[in-house]
Amino acid sequence: MLLHSLYLVAITAEAMTAALAAGRRNMDWLGVGVIACVTALGGGTVRDVLLGNHPLVWIEHPLYLGITLAAAILTAFIAPVMKRLRTLFLLLDALGLVVFTVIGCNVAASMGLPFFIVVVAGMITGTFGGVLRDILCNRTPLLFRRELYATASLLTGLLYLGLQHAGVMHGVAMVVAMVAGFAMRVLAIRYGWEMPKFVYQEDWD
Amino acid sequence: MLLHSLYLVAITAEAMTAALAAGRRNMDWLGVGVIACVTALGGGTVRDVLLGNHPLVWIEHPLYLGITLAAAILTAFIAPVMKRLRTLFLLLDALGLVVFTVIGCNVAASMGLPFFIVVVAGMITGTFGGVLRDILCNRTPLLFRRELYATASLLTGLLYLGLQHAGVMHGVAMVVAMVAGFAMRVLAIRYGWEMPKFVYQEDWD
Amino acid sequence: MLLHSLYLVAITAEAMTAALAAGRRNMDWLGVGVIACVTALGGGTVRDVLLGNHPLVWIEHPLYLGITLAAAILTAFIAPVMKRLRTLFLLLDALGLVVFTVIGCNVAASMGLPFFIVVVAGMITGTFGGVLRDILCNRTPLLFRRELYATASLLTGLLYLGLQHAGVMHGVAMVVAMVAGFAMRVLAIRYGWEMPKFVYQEDWD
């Protein structure tokens, strides 16, 4: 129940920040809606297509598609206000990251997949919506260069599964993992933490 | 029957315009063929992958793949002539848009999916071939910025389904929807109609 | 057995060259790992998603994912040495191309698909890992512009299937096809061979 409520908050927040990204590319209203849907629902879609897990979430529950579309249209109207809500949306985006990660782990675990794949499924769910958004907007995906974005997803998944393996109750493991991942992401933004970068200058091909 | 004939015309036309796009990127002949196939058959492929609807059309009917390849190669030979056929190909492209949309709606409807998803399936079929082409050519997809391209697809799908729900005969609903979507797209090109754009300048992330 | 050993060599080599590409984009360590996995395993993944062939190879064998990740991390450490191994890696990359192609043909053939689709499945397996890498790194896929890359894959697939149809023993057909494709690719790099390019300058859309 808690996870489901957080999921609805998360797809709404992701849709709204994606709508702003589309606005910066001067897309028309329909384009804004498409970018919002791809960003909010794309991570779970990639996960389910790779796992062969049909029907997709938004095909079974078209309401989620409707929510993201409505959030995107709303954003175009209240864009001037959103600037002042920047901090709120960074927090909601971090929330979405950990919520999507936990949901992705749950889906893969319920299919009986091995530990390593469950963690990867969580990371794909958490991060690939943003990757698809960046590809559609024709820019290098920020994912791999931004403050511990994928790393916070990885931490959430590892903690969530590790605590369960260690015998911690499911609900407790979930909350602890989400709080830890959320805190890592927010602190990384606040203090500019980054993963070590691999910088390579030689011209290879 | 009519729809099938129009489909063959549409994939041929889409393959030929895609081949010109590949030529502008100085791709080799094989690259031209790949871009043509992705553009002509990519919308239906994305739809079927998302719906879990296997086998894909071109895997069951490799002939369609052969037609697009042949059309692409032909284009490289007759490119100088195509310049004078520009208007014809813009019309054929608009035809492809509405034909693909109607076919996409039919596929989703035959799977018993809800109204909203049927419309979305039509739009994906109509427009995602062009989106994939633009991604492979590394440019921001034109879809969301061009004269009512996705909007004409949306109109076609809504009319097609709405008229059927209203009791209009299937064949009549199809023709009316296709003519309306085709007219909207052609008039939009002629008079430069566009959807309202969402322009947002703040630097957010 | 030979094919399986070559496959492990090939995904390792592809992961290492992909890691260098990620390093040139200043990605962090996790980004390097993702790019490596997508490049080494992406061709087979696209093939299986299109064929509806689940579970995917790396989901059934997470070890392959582990190998590519380990190879990517290793690359970040030994990057200065790799510059001197440039020729070796160009050879291993050519090996990967023909190995992936043959494996892709085998998968499609074992599903009873027609000749044309088997060849296409081989080409997708051989080349789409690199296409996905280029899309994620936001550059026009090199595939269609580089020295006979896709063409060598096509030659390998056609020879492999053609020789089998002509009654040549399976193992012999495989080795001959792989040697021919490998030789074409290496000679194309050495002598700068290219497919004819389709260059088109008119501004169409």
Order of helices and strands of chain A: HHHHHHHH
**Most extensive interface, chain pair and sizes:** A-B, 36 and 32 residues
* Cα distance spanning the termini of chain A: 51 Å
Mean pLDDT of chain A: 89
Count of discrete domains of chain A: 1
The proportion of residues in beta strands of chain A is under 5%
Radius of gyration of chain A: 17 Å
Structural class of chain A: mainly alpha
Unreliable residue runs of chain A: none
Give a short account of the largest sheet of chain A: none
Q: Which shape of chain A, going by the Cα principal axes?
A: globular
Helix content of chain A: over 70%
What's the number of helices of chain A?
8
Q: How is the quaternary structure best described? A: homotrimer
Number of strands of chain A: 0
Protein model, in words:
Chains A, B, C: Pfam families: Gly_transporter. The structure is a homotrimer of 205-residue chains. Chain A has 205 residues and is mainly α. Chain A contains eight helices and no strands.
In a nutshell, what does this entry contain?
The structure is a homotrimer of 205-residue chains. Chain A is an all-alpha fold.
